[in-house]
Amino acid sequence: MKAEYFEDTDTLLITFNDNEIVETFxxxxxxxxxxxxDGNLVCMTIEHAGRQTNVxxxxxxxATVD
Length: 66
Hints:
It contains 1 helix and 5 strands. By secondary structure, the chain is mainly beta. The protein has one domain (2-55). A 5-stranded antiparallel sheet has the order 1-2-5-4-3.
């Protein structure tokens, strides 16, 4: 999984895997979801990310189950 923020366009791209993208869906006017041939999520693009998310304080935490 990889998250990239493009400050010049205020775009956040979150890539979940490297599968081939076969379909793109508009979740709303600023969020695109892209899926592979099996319908699995490959990546998500968020336009105007600074207004819709707290991209400047992005954090990752792996939760484990005991």
